[in-house]
Design a protein that fits this description.
The protein is built from one helix and two strands, in the order E-E-H. By secondary structure, the protein is mainly beta. The chain has one domain.
């Protein structure tokens, strides 16, 4: 987790065999589309 973004990693398995893996990157922006910090409530929910 960074100031304005968070990355989630994924691993999909079937019977202990890796089928696929990947990630998504999510960024926070304000009403004008400018990058903004992750809200404290979100950071707290994610355990940081």
């Amino acid at each position: 987790m960074r100031g304005a973004s968070i990355r989630f990693g994924y691993r999909i398995t079937r019977q202990a065999e890796l089928i696929a893996e990947g990630h998504t990157l999510h960024a926070c922006v304000d009403d004008t589309g400018r990058v903004s910090r992750l809200p404290h409530a979100v950071r707290r929910l994610l355990g940081t």
